[in-house]
Each structure stands twice: as C-alpha cells, then as structure tokens.
Amino acid sequence: MDGISIEKIYNQAIELLMLYGPKFILAILVLIIGWWLIGRIANMAEKSMNKVKFEVGLTHFLVSFISVILKVLLLISVASMIGIETTSFIAMLGAAGLAVGMALQGSLANFAGGVLILFFKPFKVGDVIEAQGYMGKVVEIQIFVTVLLTYDNEKIIIPNGTLSNGCVKNKFAEPTHRVAIEFGISYGDDVHKARDVLMSVLDDYDLVLKDIEDKKPTVHVSQHGESHIGMLVWAWVESDNYWPVYFGLYERVKIAFDAADITIPFPQRDVHIHQFPGK
To answer: Which positions, given as ranges, span the membrane (predicted)?
Structure first.
C-alpha cells in the first residue's frame, strides 16, 4: 500500500510538473525580460525628458510613476500566466486605493498641485513669487510642498494644493520691471521744477533704462494730498536691479530735493492758544 501511495504521489507530481512547469518557466522568463524592458523604458523616458528640459523634480516623479505602474501590470500578467486568479486581487487593490485616497485627500490635492506646478511651470526654482501673504525666492519645488526663502532668510513652506488653486504673483518673471515710487512736495513748491529735478535724477542713474521707446522714465503729478503734491516716478529697470534702484532712488531724490530747496512735507499741527479776559 505504501508503494502504491508513493507511486500515485509521484505520478501526480509528474503530471503537475508537466502541466504547470512550462507555464512557470515561461512566467519567470517573462518576469525577467519584462523587468529589464521596464528599466530600459524608464531610462529612455528620463533621457527624453532631460532633452526637452523638464523640471528635475517632475522628471524623477514621472519616471518613478511609469516604472511602478509598468511593474504592477507585469506582476499581474505573470500571476495570470501561472493560473493565479487576478480578478479578486485587482478588486482588492482598487478597494485599498479608494480607502487610501479617502484618507489622504489633502495630501493627494497637494500631490496633484505639485504635478501641475512642475508640468506647467508658473514659476521655477530661483523665481521670486508672492503667494498666500508671503514673498520670497523659490528654493525648492517638491511633490507636496514648495519652499520659499524670504528676504529675511526665513524659510516658508507652502502646500502645493494651495499654490495651484490660488493666485501667485511671479515678481520678476519678465526681464524688465517698473519701479513706481511717489514723492511728496510742498504746495508752495514749483511742480515743473520738481519734475525737472526728478527727471535729472533718473537720467543720471545708470541702472534706469532709457533707450527702450515704451519704457523710458517718466514723472507724473499723481495726487493732491492733504499736505503735499504727489509726484509719481516710473522707472524701468532690469529685473535683477529692481531693489537697488528702488532704495537708491529714495536716497538720490532726497539729496537732489535738498540741493534744489524743494520741501518734502511731513505731518504737522499748528496749535493756537487763545486767552480770554478773567480766566
């Protein structure tokens, strides 16, 4: 009886080997070759993205995403080749994905925002942007957050979901920028003289652009205030020179106004004391 049992087991083993052996070997070959092909596809995709100068963060993310998706599809195909039922497995993956998505709605929104920012490039690393009440230089664009460095050297981390759905001001995206500053003069000063002084300051400032037809410096009377006449200065500069010109004009105009005896008014009050007889 023992001999018969061993013989049956042996025969069944041979049958199973003959039935599933070729499938198993073929599945292993498909897995090895497919894994190698996925690596080649990922490398080709990365080289193509580098040629068209995709953002580094977006390139790494897309290559990783493509590689993971292809590997998951490969494993499902291999499992089906050796007779494993994949329908329930795929259903479980879908249910798990839905549960994870429900739990991580905020993170997924930030993830989607990061993809949109990296793909459409409303700003890039090195740009100065103003968003969510903060202004600073973009030092890093990650998948979930964007990191800014303010002029005070403070690091600001803003979720990408908020950035992609809100207003973002890219301060110096264009090669030139307009500096707009209003200087006040006294009502007793000559407006034409003040304009000439301001134009002289602009003409003598080498960082102010003067050769571009629609970007020449101008001076305008901007308002009649309670205690001053507003003189608005528009000066076009290269974007890298915005802050030096912005602060430099205040100093140069003060010196020029003092030399020309033009008054920069400041708030003041006249106090009148009345004396009444018998008091």
So the answer is: 20-38, 58-84, 90-120
Judged on CB neighbours under 10 Å (0-12, 13-18, 19+), 30 is: middle
- Residue 268's contacts (CB-CB under 8 Å, 6 or more residues apart) are 227
Cα 249 from Cα 16, distance rounded (Å): 89
Residue 177 buriedness (CB in 10 A; 0-12 / 13-18 / 19+):
buried
pTM to 2 decimal places: 0.60
pLDDT at 1: 46
Measured CA distances, 36 to 73, 74, 211, 215, 223 (Å): 14, 11, 59, 58, 72
Q: Count CB neighbours of 55 within 10 A.
A: 17
The pLDDT tens digits of the residues spanning 51-87 come to 877 666 667 767 777 888 888 888 878 777 766 666 6
Task: List, in sequence order, every residue forming a beta bridge with 218; answer none if it has no partner.
Answer: 234
